[in-house]
Amino acid sequence: MTGFKDHFSSASERYAAYRPDYPAALFAWLAGQCAERALAWDCATGSGQAARGLAPHFHRVVATDASGEQIRHAAPHPRVDYRVAPAEASGLADSSVDLVTIAQAAHWFDLARFHAEAARVLKPSGMIALWGYGRMVLPGEMDAPLERFYAETVGPYWPPERALIDDAYRSLDFPFTEIQPPPFSIEVEWTLLRLLDYLSTWSSVKRCRAMPGCDPLPALMAELAPAWGDPEMARRLQWPLFMRVGRR
Fold first, then answer.
1. Three-class secondary structure of residue 177 per DSSP
2. Cα(203)–Cα(205) distance, rounded to whole angstroms?
3. What phi and psi, each to the nearest 5 degrees, are found at residue 107?
4. Backbone angle region of 9, left / alpha / beta, with phi > 0 → left and psi within -120 to 50 → alpha
5. How distant is the alpha carbon of residue 222 from its chain centre?
6. Taking the CA of residue 103 as centre, how many other CA atoms within 13 Å lie in the half-sphere pointing to its CB?
7. What is the structure's pLDDT at 28?
8. Three-state helix/strand/coil letters over the chain
């Protein structure tokens, strides 16, 4: 696990509780691209959001993460086998995997080593898909405070790898035969407090909070509250996904 940058183990329970799930249509489309559906590998699974989305479509899902704490907080599923393993050394057999998925995590990898591992475990017809999402856009006048919060308040606390998310993975090396996916979005209906719970899982917020007397969320809530209205009122929020999808 040399080189593993662990930004999430310290808040694994919050990550499992407050990160959004991915759309069911995404997993149905990915499964439809696969010649076989015996085994999917969800790499850097975190608390298993993507692994559980894949489970209805594959006989078995192996979900790995380098963080044992993340795996400990992952929700169980009868078709998902959770394991602690780095992205670059899955422990899976050669040519055994129909689909490799990486959700909101490829920017942390040693990509050359990971690509070699993915090529090793994929079947000759196997698929690989990596995706992510950036900052959501809030409705109306609420978006400007969130944009300032993202770029200025906690901007200095983002790890440098965050630039790859802002670039929508366009600059990542992707040595596979690429195909163009249809558009997908995460959609949720959240209260203001639920939104702040999600923001508390950002690595930049956690790093800011680690500084003495630094908690940026109350000030953001005070800015958002007048335009949001009743903080218990759920609003519809959306993140478009960006994706790189290819065949071995």
1. strand
2. 5
3. -70, -10
4. alpha
5. 28
6. 26
7. 98
8. CCCCCCCCHHHHHHHHHHCCCCCHHHHHHHHHCCCCCCEEEEECCCCCHHHHHHHHHCCEEEEEECCHHHHHCCCCCCCEEEEECCCCCCCCCCCCEEEEEEECCHHHCCHHHHHHHHHHHEEEEEEEEEEECCCCCCCHHHHHHHHHHHHHHCHHHCCCCHHHHHCCCCCCCCCCEEECCCCCEEEEEECHHHHHHHHCCCHHHHHHHCCCCCCCHHHHHHHHHHHHCCCCCCEEEEEECEEEEEEC
Percent of all residues in the chain with a pLDDT value above 90, rounded to a whole number = 88
Please state, in angstroms and rounded to a whole number, the distance separating the CA atoms of residues 116 and 113.
5
Q: Tokens representing 226? A: 């007048």
Which 8-state DSSP code applies to residue 35? S
Q: For 152-181, how does the pLDDT look when each residue is reduced to its tens digit (9 = 90+)?
A: 999 999 999 999 999 999 999 999 999 999
- Residue for token digits 């856009």? 137
The mean pLDDT of 88-116, rounded to a whole number, is 96
Neighbours of 31 (CB within 10 A): 18
